[in-house]
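Worked problem 6 (solution included).
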Amino acid sequence: MYLFAIAAGAVALIHAVAALQRPRPAVIVSGILWALYACYEYLVANGVLCDADCNIRVDLVLFIPVLGLATFWAYQSYMGRPGRTKIIGTVLGIIGLLVVGLVAEGLGYGAPAYVVILGALTIGVIYAIRSRYAANRSRR
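Solution. The predicted structure is:
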């Protein structure tokens, strides 16, 4: 059981290194999701969230597709692929940051949550302005 926690932690570490190289919202959010999954697996392996008799592999029906999609779009965003994939990766990152901010605010971390939400909205506005500027330039 600890193998899943170690593997998820390694993937989160890879995402952290990628986010330091090229800070993209999709990469950061995907790394956060993998880190949260690693914490979850560690707590399950210790028996904190689940005793020895429960079937916890059913949760992977939800976690693996979400982590897979987040990782795919983070990769697309990291590689800077043109077109929709880069846009979807950026939108996924912004939505993920908003969710992280809202969850943090719900847990009582008001100030950091507001900073994350404001940062996500700022990234979205800057990206929209840059996209519109690039579209207007290509028409000329």
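Discussion: The chain has five helices and no strands.
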